[in-house]
Fold CysZ-like protein.
Amino acid sequence: MALGVILSAFARALGQLGDRRFRAVLWRGLALTLGLLAGLTALLVWGVGALVGDTVALPLLGEVAWVDDVLSWAFLALMIALSVFLMVPVAAAFVSIFLEEVAGAVEARHYPALPPAGEVSLLDGLRDGASALGLLIGANAVALALTLVFPIGGLPVFYAVNGLLLGREYFTVVAMRRVGRAEAARLRRRHLPTIWAAGVLMALPLTVPVLNLIVPILGAATYTHIFHALERRG
């Protein structure tokens, strides 16, 4: 495991967090997340009103006109509560779509002699974003269940599982810009301990509110440096 590579990459990524291109990706991801959650909430509230109707016939009470309002407000409160938990994984998925911009910003500053990277199509970006979201939700559901059953051992499992998944996703996204998906997978398998350990480092902020929103950006920047270091080793 190349610990020096990980620490150097992480330090250089931290030093670039103020880059305006990093901030643009973060704000874009948050805006899309808020828009999606607001749209889903509005759709659910409208759907409840449409299904229930203006009046409902209840036993003993007869026709009442307030049931749809109560259900609509209940669904609104439910979506607001769920948004607290959905905000991070959804934002991470949206930000993941634009990770190529983060990698490009890192290379422009630290590797200016490189030729232009191959573009990742919007479809590939959406696929990788959806994959990252699904993996994060699934892994965290498993980790949460383990934490409830084994309170002491659950947190290490959380970091280990998320570290593996984050490392896998971010390294692949960054590497395939330069060497294609197949070669990125080969490098990932060859240097799995380093990639996994760096992923655990990225997973640590996941349990810190607000800070966890920058994990995708910090991860993409860190893994850009890691990729270039590992590629030279073959």
